Amino acid sequence: MITPIPQEAFNIAPAYAEVTMIVGASLLLLVDMYLSESKRSITYLLSLALLAVCATISYGDFMAGTTTYTFNGMYVSDPMSNLLKLFTYLALGLTLIYSRQYTTQRGMMTGNLGGEFYVLALFAGLGQMIMISGSHFLTIYLGVELMSLSLYALVALRRDNHKATEAAMKYFVLGALASGFLLYGMSMLYGATGTLEISKVAAAVAAGTIKPTILVFGIVFLVAGLAFKLGAVPFHMWVPDVYEGSPTAVTLLLGGAPKIATFAVCIRLLVEGLLPLAGDWQQMLMVLAVMSLVIGNLTAIAQTNLKRMLAYSTIAQIGFVLLGLLSGVGTTVGTGGMEAAYSASMFYVVTYVLTTVGTFGLLMLLSRAGFDADNVADFKGLGKRSGWFALMMTIMMFSMAGVPPLVGFAAKFSVLNAVLGTGQVWLTIIAVMFSLIGAYYYLRIVKTMWFDEPVDSAPLDAPADMKVVLSLNGVAILALGVLPGPLLAVCAAAMKVTLAT
């Protein structure tokens, strides 16, 4: 049930984080124009400082625990949005730290390019923040397009690289098609309900006076657009090609924080806006989830390029996120069922992003000028070259495979428990079976690191901050697996407030 909340026509206070980000990123672009290549580290440090300031603002809003609608209902600040923004800042910050050496060695921070990588990453982050707090169709769409346009430019940032250019074209064309699906679905819902505000759409749908045919037609296009942004089958065609063709730093930007923002949009549109029609979109998500688990895991086995393997791994992992989303249907707010299912999905997407960020960080650690470590064979003998970072990669791979006591196991268990709560045992069996199949390609990398002879004896040369943060990233994956309760409880509390309002 949607409880009406007083709305303020214009109160900028709940959006201080977004205002800080857009002003800071714009000023950073101007400052960077006057910096020489030798002083480019200033852009890097200012970018991290900006993220830290935004995180401080969002943390204060999160601790307040209030829900505020402003800008005539177009924007909402609630515990879920502020929590997801905090993890978005974390993912972006880790990405910038891991990417610093990689982008410098490949000329992505020199000449006419300057600090565009950092500025575009920040604007992509701004788009994600708007997506997360959007409570209006237009707000969400503007956030999606701001994020997408920034990512299109980032994929094509190495203009002298034909693989990056090809990846950018594929991403742009298919991304434009997906945006069209999303916008058309929104237009259908607007035509049926007469409003673009999500809470009013929910009220109109719950009234039961609208013909369901046109609503379901709009939902089909909405789900198709969201599935593309998530990379779910059969809208996954762009994922392996774009992951492989993009510079690894950009691949990390694609595979990390955007998943958090798209998850938030799924909650806003499907759960908050279209819950009375859950029986229809649940069936669509079920098909997407099963197909993603099957095709993602089976296709990843045949990959020798590590970035393509991780792309198909992402597709399979998204299947679990969708399982959590569809498992909240049919339960009642207050019983714990609905909150447990959606919080399990939130926990899964957050921990998956942290694991993915660390994995691609290790890929960039092994890379150097003129060499990208993007094949499975490039990890041969890593245990002999650096036992510590081989251990970190082992933690990441075991977590993705769902091996206890790592956080990937806790995330999978919470989602499977939610699916079992709906009585769909067959769906749980399929998820477990293909998770076991998927463990093969993760374990193959572990075997390559520890049991194969090294073919490269070059030292792992990386900035100290990157090595320290990578180590902390790996330790966090282990710690969250041993003690998942606190983060799960925070996710559940945030989701409970969001669903109640």
Detailed description of the structure:
By secondary structure, this protein is an all-alpha fold. The chain is 74% helix and 2% strand. It contains 20 helices and three strands. The chain has helices at residues 16-33, 41-64, 79-105, 116-133, 137-155, 162-193, 198-207, 212-230, 238-245, 248-255, 257-273, 278-301, 306-326, 337-366, 382-385, 387-401, 407-421, 425-451, 464-482, 485-500; strands at residues 7-8, 68-70, 75-77. The chain has a three-stranded mixed sheet with strand order 1-2-3. Strand 2 and strand 3 (75-77) form a beta hairpin. The longest helix has 32 residues, at 162-193. The radius of gyration is 22 Å and the shape is globular. It starts with 6 loop residues before the first strand and ends with a helix. The relative contact order is 0.10. The mean pLDDT is 88.
Q: Care to count the β-strands?
A: 3
Indicate the low-confidence ranges by residue numbers.
none
- Describe the main β-sheet briefly: 3 strands, mixed
- Rounded mean pLDDT is 88
Work out the helix count.
Answer: 20
Oligomeric state of this protein: single chain
Helicity, as a percent range = over 70%
- Structural class call reads mainly alpha
Please give a quick description of this structure.
It is built from 20 helices and 3 strands. The protein has helices at 16-33, 41-64, 79-105, 116-133, 137-155, 162-193, 198-207, 212-230, 238-245, 248-255, 257-273, 278-301, 306-326, 337-366, 382-385, 387-401, 407-421, 425-451, 464-482, 485-500, and strands at residues 7-8, 68-70, 75-77.
